[in-house]
Amino acid sequence: MMRKKEEKQAKKKMTDWFEFPKEVIMDLPVISLIGREELFLENYKGMIEYNDEQMRISTTCGILKVVGRNLHLKVMTTENIIITGTILSIEYIN
Amino acid sequence: MFLAMWNYWRGYVIIEVYGFSVERFMNLATHKGIYLWDIKRKGLITEMKVSIPGFKLLKQCARKTKCKVCIIEKKGWPFVAHRYRKRKIFTLGMIICICLLYLLSSFIWVIDIQGNNQISKEEILETLEQYGVKSGVWKRKINAEEIGHYLIQNIKEISWVSAYIKGTRLFIDLVEVVPKPEFIDVHTPCHIVADKKGIIVSIATSAGTPKVKAKDVVEEGDLLVSGELLIKEEEEIKDIQYVHALADIKGKVWYVFEVEQDIYYINKQYTNQIKKHYGMTYFDTQKMFLRPSISFENYDIITNKKLFSFGQNFILPFGWIKEEYHEYIPQKKQYTEVQIKEKLQKKLQKQMAESFTSDVEIIEQEVTFEKYNNTIKAKATIAVVESIGKEERITIPERRTILDGTNGENNSY
């Protein structure tokens, strides 16, 4: 466990130093928001909860909670998710 | 848009999923590489779209997660094709239709001519027909560039042509030659003769022998300045030399213009009663469907023809015709005297503008009005001062030398 944490730290330092894109090296999720109607999430792990008012998606850095109205998934592939609807809040919960 | 078209081409199914954990089902499906889209939650049921190969893999996921999957709708081309797989004639018809469309689009159906003012459209079309280009000719058979060359060669009034094919249309853009007045080279000997009847106002000769003087009355064709130079020696004509006569001759010329105007006119009071009539047109024939009974006594017909086309340039030789019969009540009305005079004046001005060039000076103008049964005639007598000479080539008797009017070279023999 400790070792994994150390490895993570080292990776973070390296990416900071070389200015590598973090999402590639550290496998972090990338979120792009278009206004408040479309959310593009790259690099996710899995869907935990899904309905038209709240979505919980597990990522490598915790669970991402998206709250909104009339939410639905436009696209779902192994790498990315596109959520459309009216987004009210985005939150990480651990 | 493109994605939707692609999906339609590949085919997809809209499915309903319900069960304990739809999320697990979705995760599993995506991990297997199944592409899911438009996922909507409707209470307990989740609706989503999935491709046809994806759907086959979904059964496993459903069994694992204990979810139930059922198809709501099958969409896309593969299903349509599957449904009609046994209808051979239908397929054949479709293929024939596509072939026919392709075939028809490889002909020229419409010829668009632009830029002609003096040359009539019919003349150009006729020339094209002589070359073998008309509505219905095969596109491959003709070469647009050669058409342009042919037109330039065969119609003299054209100075520049661009012919090009766009879709089923042949465009011909042309520029006309500005008509050039007949011009005699300054080295060619010539006379100046009167081109109209009038009184000479002034004559200033710079080359040639003047034959008239101011205040002379001349008829059309009278010799004004001769290009013959008589070389005399003690009243004896020794030689005749020919020059290019040059003179500025102004004459007073009378013109008479007559215009007419009806006193009464018919005002069309439209009643807004319109009857429509539809028909079809193909190639050059027109077939109208049931003709409506028209009880109107007076009507205008507005014909609207619309050919089928793909975009702007792929026009096919079929189309619809719409005829509209607009009823009107004719009302006989009368112009006031002022209105009539105004109209007549306008007509006169138009005629004068057409017949006079800009360097004409109007010196007298007299307009009389005469009333006939239902019309009023205006007669305008106009006196103008304008140049009245025109050049005329001299036919030189044989064995005569020519004196060049400009450089004065003398070749006597």
What this model shows, in words?
The complex is a heterodimer of chains A (94) and B (413). Chain A has one domain: Sandwich (Immunoglobulin-like). Helices cover 22% and strands 53% of the residues of chain A. Chain A is built from two helices and six strands; from the N terminus they run ααββββββ. Chain A has helices spanning 2-18, 22-25, and strands at 30-34, 38-42, 46-50, 54-59, 62-76, 80-93. A six-stranded antiparallel beta sheet of chain A has the order 1-2-6-5-4-3, with no helix packed on it. In chain A, a hairpin with a 3-residue loop joins strand 3 and strand 4. The longest helix of chain A is centred in the first third of the chain and has 17 residues, at 2-18. Chain A starts with a helix and ends with a strand. In chain B, helix 6 (121-131) packs across helix 7. Among the domains of chain B are: 2-82, ACT domain (Alpha-Beta Plaits, 2-Layer Sandwich); 107-176, Roll (Ubiquitin-like (UB roll)), CATH 3.10.20.310; 264-334, no CATH class. A five-stranded antiparallel beta sheet of chain B has the order 13-11-17-23-22, covered by helices on one side. A four-stranded antiparallel beta sheet of chain B has the order 2-3-1-4. Chain B is 24% helix and 47% strand. Chain A binds chain B through residues 46-52, 72-78, and chain B through 22-23, 26-27, 30-31, 33, 35-41, 46, 48. Strand 5 of chain A pairs antiparallel with strand 2 of chain B, so a sheet runs across the interface.
